[in-house]
Write a structure and sequence with these properties.
With 354 residues, the chain is α+β, with helices and mostly antiparallel strands. The chain has eight helices and 13 strands. It folds into two domains: 108 residues, Phosphorylase Kinase, domain 1 (2-Layer Sandwich); 224 residues, Transferase(Phosphotransferase), domain 1 (Orthogonal Bundle). The structure holds adenosine-5'-diphosphate and magnesium ion.
Length: 354
């Protein structure tokens, strides 16, 4: 028996729940904080089961994450179904998501030192390397982005939100699938041809890495057009030999220049247009840890979906249309609700089922 007090920790705009575009939209209804009888804090994720997709995302999260334990993945404690809602119970992460804190502007007072940023990048890289290379069948997360990286009280990162994840049996290297994910983090080959491999996650990780080092989101529509896209800005600075200028001003110069430059180059490698030119996640983790070299890898301009879509706009219909931006607005930027209510629910613990 789980007795919970419920407080909204993420209020979601209704647009996120009602599909409008060609991208499947998420079916999360709300995320609440709760407490076990022994005082342990939990995060309670309520998914709609009114649609087939809601049920699919619920099952996908359970199947994917329930058997996995890694220090850089969220821990699923249990699940339950009540009326037409499906509920997942996770360990509560005190420092919320990178989208809300590091990229959340004035909404957060947390300070992200250079050291903390490197540890976050390495942790996420290790978590993804585990999903891609150690788990059988391999798992492609499909929605790596700042709002799906949660931080515990010590800023240790945890990859969360496995609603879109796909399992890859050993014999299968790629699947052709309907595109799901978040514009801005989508690898071009996946967005345009629906070709999904682990390299699509690696591309998203590269975008995330640049966001962590620069402290800005991959798209900022409030800036002049030529500065809106982080990858473009980064590449322009790289060509001018001024890449280090991309590092977050909030650090006030308090960072290791060589290390920062290495991190940004890894970001470029992960976002190369050709998937085969992107290193595997275990190699990426080693590069970030300083145990594998970066300079022997050729770096060319990262693959940008906007460039490619402009080129292809006159050709055959792509999977992702430029209007498919339903998830570009991060829900985590919506105002935090302080609604409180109480509930008691029964849930089956994942760890009871052996
Ligand atoms: N375990 C957790 N601890 C703390 N906050 C969480 C937790 N899980 C989710 N959240 C918050 O809720 C947001 C949405 O959760 P997520 O699982 O990504 O659902 P979805 O993207 O389907 O809405 C996260 O970005 C984060 O702000
Ligand atoms: Mg999410």
């Amino acid at each position: 028996m789980l007795t919970v007090f419920i407080r909204h920790i993420s209020s979601l705009d209704s647009a996120a729940v009602r599909p409008k575009s060609s991208f499947p939209t998420k079916q999360t209804v709300e995320i609440n904080a709760g407490k076990l009888n022994d005082g342990t804090l939990m995060a309670i994720k309520v998914l709609s089961a009114q649609s087939e997709q809601g049920v699919r995302e619920f099952l996908s999260e359970i199947v994917t994450i329930s058997g996995l334990q890694h220090e850089n993945l969220v821990k699923l404690y249990g699940c339950c179904t009540e009326r037409d809602q499906r509920i997942l119970v996770y360990g509560y992460l005190e420092n919320n998501s990178l989208a809300r804190t590091l990229l959340g502007g004035r909404n957060s007072n947390l300070q992200f030192s250079w050291k903390i940023r490197t540890q976050i990048c390495i942790g996420v890289a290790r978590g993804l390397a585990f999903l891609h290379e150690e788990v059988e069948p391999h798992i492609v997360h499909r929605d790596i982005k700042a709002s799906n990286i949660l931080l515990d009280k010590d800023f240790k990162p945890k990859i969360s939100d496995f609603g879109l994840a796909k399992l890859f049996p050993e014999t299968i290297t790629h699947v052709s699938t309907r595109v799901a994910g978040t514009f801005g983090y989508l690898a071009p080959e996946y967005a345009i041809r629906g070709k999904l491999t682990r390299k699509a996650d690696i591309y998203s990780f590269g975008v995330l890495l640049l966001e962590i080092v620069s402290g800005r989101p991959n798209k900022n529509r409030r800036l002049p057009a030529e500065q809106q896209n982080l990858l473009e800005v980064a590449w322009t600075l790289y060509e001018k030999g001024k890449l280090v200028q991309l590092v977050d001003n909030a650090l006030d110069g308090d960072f290791d220049t060589d290390e920062a430059s290495r991190y940004l180059k890894v970001g470029f490698l992960c976002t190369q247009e050709l998937p085969k030119n992107r290193p595997s996640m275990s190699t990426v983790a080693k590069m970030l840890e300083g145990e594998a070299g970066v300079d022997e890898w050729a770096i060319s301009k990262p693959g940008l979906l906007t460039d490619i879509m402009t080129l292809k706009s006159s050709s055959s219909a792509p999977h992702a249309s430029s209007s498919a931006t339903s998830r570009t607005q991060d829900k985590s930027s919506s105002s935090e609700s302080t609604n409180m209510s109480h509930a008691t629910m029964t849930f089956s613990s994942i760890y009871d089922r052996n």
